[in-house]
Specification:
Structural class: alpha/beta
Distance between the termini: 43 Å
Number of helices: 15
Strand order of the largest sheet: 7-6-8-9-10-12
Strand content: 5-15%
Shape: elongated
Number of domains: 3
Largest sheet: 6 strands, mixed
CATH superfamily of the largest domain: Response regulator
CATH architecture of the largest domain: 3-Layer(aba) Sandwich
CATH topology of the largest domain: Rossmann fold
CATH class of the largest domain: Alpha Beta
Order of helices and strands: EHEEHEEHEHEHEHEHEHEEHHHHHHH
Length: 382
Amino acid sequence: MRHVAVIIETSTQYGRNLIRGIARFGRLHDWQLHFEYRGKTAAEPDWLADFKGDGVITTSPDQRHSKALREQGMPVIDLQGTLVDPAGEHLIVDSDHRAVGRLAAEHFIEKGHRHFAYLGYSDQSVSREREIGFTETLAARGHKPLCHHTPERKARTFEALHRGDAAFIASLPKPCALFCCWDEVGFRAVQSALEQGIAVPEDLAVLGVDNDPVFSSTSRIPLSSIDPDIIRMGFLTASWLAEMMEGTRLQKIKLERLVPPKGLIVRQSTALDAIEDPLVRRFLEMLRQQRPGLLSIENLARDCHVSRRLLEQRVKAATGKTPRQLLSQTLVDAIQRFLSQTDYTLAHIADLLGFEHAERLSHLFRRQTGMTPGEYRKSTGT
C-alpha cells in the first residue's frame, strides 16, 4: 500500500474534481490518501511536516512542508505552478488551456456571432493561456475580441471587480459573445449585465469554464460552461506520481501531458444564435422574461412598437420561425422545466405560467409534444 498526501482545496469544483481523479487512480492501485477539508489559499497543514508516506500532490500557495519533503527525496507534484523543460515541453500534467479557448471561440462562431470579448485575470497564467487560444482562433477567422483584465491580486476587491466588469460589459456592442476565464467570472458577468438592463443571452452571450454547479445553477440565467476534464487531469497526476514513486525521472515519464477539454455544456446563457436585429432580440427577451401563458402575438407586437405583420416578417427572417412557433416552444419549455424539476401540481404550474385553467395548459402541451403532462413527468422520473 502506498500512502499519498493530497494537499488540494476542497472548496472549489476544480479541487474536488482533482481529488476525485486522484482517488479513482488510488483505488485501482491500493493507495491510502491523506487529505482534509481546506480552502484555496490555506497553508499546508502542520501534520505534513512529519508525513512518512510515499508521495505528495499539492496545490497550496505555501509549500514549506512539501518543499522540505522534496529535499529529503520524497516525490512531490506541485500543481500550483507549471514546470517546463528548456525545449518548452510540459514536464507535469496540465489542462490544455489553449484548447479550452479554441473551443469557446468555435462555439461562438457556430452561433453566428460577429462581436467577441474576453474577461479574465491579468496575473493568472491559466487565464492568459485561455485568452491566447480564444484570440488566435478568432484571428484566424478575421475577428479581434475586446479584452478586459481584472486588477492584479493585491488590488482586487469586490468593488473593483464589479466596477471594472460593469464598465467593460456596458461598452460591448450588441449582440456580443463574452468568454470568461472561469465560471466565477461568468456568474459575475451575467449578474452585471442584468443589473444594467443588458439581456442575456439576447444582447450578451456568456460562457464560463469549469462546469461548476454552484455558479452554473445559481446564476439567474443558467450559465453555459466548458468542462476541462479535471477528473482526468487528477487521474493522470496520480499516474505521474506513481511513476515518480517508482524512481522514474520527470523527463523520462511517457504519459499524457496536456488534457483536452471534455466538452461544452450549453445552457441558456449561450443557447441562442446571434441575432443582429434589435427588434427580434427584444421580442425574444420578452418571451423569456414574462409569464408565457399571458402573452399574445398582438400584445408582443404592441410592446415592440411595431405591427404584427412587421414583427412576423422580422422574426421569421432572423430565426426561421414565426412568432407563434417561438411562443409555443417557450410555453412547452417552461412546462417541461416545471414538470421535470418540481412536484408541483398541474394547476399550480398553470397559475405560475399565466394560464387561467390547467386544462388549456394540458391541451397545448399534448398538441405540441404528443404526450400528456403526466406522461412526460413519468418519463423524466420526477
